[in-house]
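Subject: Agenet-like domain-containing protein structure
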Amino acid sequence: MKDSATDAAAGGDGKRGGHDVSFCVDMDIDRDIDGLWFPARILVDHGDDTYDVEYDEDHKVEEHIPASELRYMLVMTP
């Protein structure tokens, strides 16, 4: 059985069993843009399932990104 973290990491909708996945300030995440995932960091949690994120590559900041477009960052281990 997968939990909500696994579902979100697998590109799910961030919800499983009626429970929302939540993200914390300073958490490394991935953001979905047109089916591509971009590494970013949570800057602000607005408390309404939207977040401000800063992208790792160009440090661009976007505001009020819905949780449905975010997932826990996938970490590859050797």
